[in-house]
Amino acid sequence: MRIITTTIILILLAICSSCSRKGQEEKEPNNSFAESNAVVPDTAMTGYMNSANDRDYFVLDAVPGSIYDIQLSGVKGINCSIVIWKGYDEPKLVKWIDDNRKSSPERFANLSATGGTYYIEILESDRDPKKENRETPYELRVKAREAISEETEPNDSKEEAVPLTPDREVTGFFSPAYNRGNENKDNLHREEDWYMFEANLASDSPALADATLSGVYGVNSVLSLYDDDGDEIEVSDNGGVGEPESISGAGIQKPGRYYLFVASKGYASNNDEPYTLKVSLREHDPGTEMEKNDDFDSANTIVNNVITGAINSRDDQDVYLYQVSGSTLYRIELRPSETMDAMLAIYRGDKEKIIDINNGGRGKKEAYPNFFTDANFNIVVASKSSAGTPGEEYVLSVTPFMNTDNQESEPNNELSQSNRIPGTVMKGFTSYKGDKDFFLLSYKSRVKEKFEIKGVKGGQIRVSITDPLGYITKSVDVRGERTVTFSEMIDKKGYCIVESVAENYDNPYTIILGGGP
Amino acid sequence: MKTACYLVSAVMILASFAGCRSTNGKDAGVIDYRKPDKYNVRFIGFDTDIDNPEGDRRSYYKVFIDKADEGRTTTGLESQEKIYEATLSPNRHLITVEKWVLDEKTGRYVKLNNIDQPKPNFLYFDIPENKIVLIEMKSSRDGSAEFSVDYER
């Protein structure tokens, strides 16, 4: 009795097994849309590459709003690929997945179905020699799930961009690695995900857009923001493999449609771990930088003498315009975040570069204490930080001096730029590493002048007196805020040169001639 | 009467001689020295045997009076006169000079090595009342120096 029972169970199992395998196997010929085999979600389907040019078609009756994860197992020695078509009467190409080489599986993690008929075509890739394999089957598996606030593939172009709602996260996949439908020569076969959002500005004032893209294991991603004309506003490509990207303070100048673009670098993919994308809009405060301000034409105007900004990528630079109301002296100061090695360049109205400043190092402020100008000027802020940490924030301030009497006027870095000393007292600053300030000494006859030098608190200067040709006849070092007095002959004309030995950009030095006023 | 005439004649002749001698003495023996105004001592230093422009360096002399640093001469080529002027009290004084030359690489004057300094580099001199003392120092390439003193006229 026991033997009979066991035998019956084995027979039933064999029958079940046989029936099951029969239901999941392709039925040749299925070499065209018309001959396609129906594929049932969440059920494995096996098939063979019966010839080198065999094509197996499967048809999927998609449920609207569903996401289908299409997986094709590897076949030893064969490089398979998947082509997805949509439409019953005239199927149109949706996606061509051909990521890996022979013997490897293929996968498209999130086909977003709008309902209707989809065809899945299995064929051999032309990236390897084609050959038949009647021994090892492939296995096609289509998994279905419900879409929850996620990317709707295909969204491979601006025209197919997925609508985004600001402040709401959306998920997507870096899948597949290759999109054979992308014929753009610059990024051939790159898989791209496009998103779109509407910027409804309440008033004429611009807004700022912030966007974040989470990091995904094994993927080095890039995130870009475009306007409706296709002009790139901002790009974030700072993070490495597995690291996030972010855009901060991108300028939304006018109401309308804007686009976010997500892609992986090096055709990397991850079919299991989704990315998260979010965009936010906020009002633009005139005291805050508005990207894109990477060149003189797009410079942000500094109002109220202060502006905050951020370096968003390794190549980012922020350009500002300061509009002067008259000729005077300005103190320009840049306070970076702890990680930022800030650089500062100043250009006069006609884009003539006045100076590059990078004295402080990481996390240290930069300053140009005594800039004299009577024309509008530009300030370019950049970061020297080797890693190019994104979101390096800074505060840039421009302070006009009300009283400029007896104040050094930068640039006075060479004989031809020498400042005249109008009375008997002159104050100046060490403005950058190795700064040299030149002052003209002029008398009606040869004199023996007495110099009283009050040094720079927290710094050190070297004061030199020259002959009429500018050759140094005497030098003295002044450490800290000590006072040093000396005399030197001036042959009617000479120069006083103040050279910074140890810089301090906050405290001035003072030169007093002939015992003072 | 005759005797009186002889005496008058003799006096007149003597007076005439005296007058002539006085006039001649002023022209030939009394020098009209310039009186001090802005200075009463003037030092002039220069090299005498510079014959090559490439070796004619820009230079000056630092001047010490009675061992105190009092300044420097004007600057000029070694072959040119470099001048220092000062007002000193009537007394005997010591002037010492130190030669500095331009280092064109650094753009600053540097003190010449001791071995190349003028020798001698000092002079004792007197400042008289109402006269300007001229001190001239002629140097040569081998370092030898020759001082001469005069009064400015």
Sheet-strand content of chain B, in percent, reads 35-45%
**For the residues shown, what is the average pLDDT of chain A?**
87
Distance between the termini of chain A: 128 Å
Name the CATH class of the largest domain in chain A: Mainly Beta
Q: How many domains make up the coordinates of chain A? A: 4
Number of helices of chain B: 1
Radius of gyration of chain A, whole Å: 35 Å
Morphology call of chain B: elongated
Quaternary state of the chains? heterodimer
Structure at a glance:
Chain A is mostly beta strands and 517 residues long. Chain A has one helix at residues 2-24, and strands at 37-38, 44-49, 55-62, 66-72, 80-86, 92-97, 106-112, 116-124, 133-146, 162-163, 170-174, 192-199, 207-213, 221-226, 232-236, 245-252, 256-264, 270-283, 300-301, 306-311, 317-322, 328-336, 342-348, 352-357, 366-373, 377-383, 392-400, 419-420, 425-428, 436-442, 447-454, 460-466, 472-479, 483-490, 493-502, 509-513. In chain A, strand 32 (460-466) and strand 33 (472-479) form a beta hairpin.
Structural features, described:
- The complex is a heterodimer of chains A (517) and B (153).
- Chain A is mostly beta strands.
- Chain A folds into 4 domains: 2-146, Sandwich (Jelly Rolls), CATH 2.60.120; 158-283, Jelly Rolls; 296-401, Jelly Rolls (Sandwich); 415-513, Sandwich (Jelly Rolls), CATH 2.60.120.380.
- Helices cover 4% and strands 48% of the residues of chain A.
- Chain A has one helix at residues 2-24; strands spanning 37-38, 44-49, 55-62, 66-72, 80-86, 92-97, 106-112, 116-124, 133-146, 162-163, 170-174, 192-199, 207-213, 221-226, 232-236, 245-252, 256-264, 270-283, 300-301, 306-311, 317-322, 328-336, 342-348, 352-357, 366-373, 377-383, 392-400, 419-420, 425-428, 436-442, 447-454, 460-466, 472-479, 483-490, 493-502, 509-513.
- In chain A, the strands form 8 sheets. Chain A has a 5-stranded mixed sheet with strand order 1-3-8-5-6, with no helix packed on it. Chain A has a 5-stranded mixed sheet with strand order 10-12-17-14-15, with no helix packed on it.
- In chain A, β14 and β15 (232-236) form a beta hairpin.
- The longest helix of chain A has 23 residues, at 2-24.
- Chain A is elongated.
- Chain A starts with a helix and ends with a strand.
- The model of chain A is unreliable at 10-23 (pLDDT under 50).
- The longest helix of chain B is centred in the N-terminal third of the chain and has 28 residues, at 2-29.
- Chain B has one helix spanning 2-29; strands at residues 41-47, 58-65, 68-72, 76-77, 82-86, 92-103, 108-111, 122-126, 133-139, 145-151.
- Chain B is α+β, with helices and mostly antiparallel strands.
- In chain B, a hairpin with a 2-residue loop joins β2 (58-65) and β3.
- In chain B, 18% of the residues lie in helices and 41% in strands.
- Residues 11-27 of chain B have low confidence and may be disordered.
- In chain B, strands 2, 3, 4, 6, 7 and 8 form a 6-stranded antiparallel sheet that branches. Chain B has a 4-stranded mixed sheet with strand order 5-1-9-10, with no helix packed on it.
- Chain A binds chain B through residues 446, 448, 464, 467-473, 475, 487-489, 491, and chain B through 58, 60, 71-72, 74-75, 100, 102, 106-109.
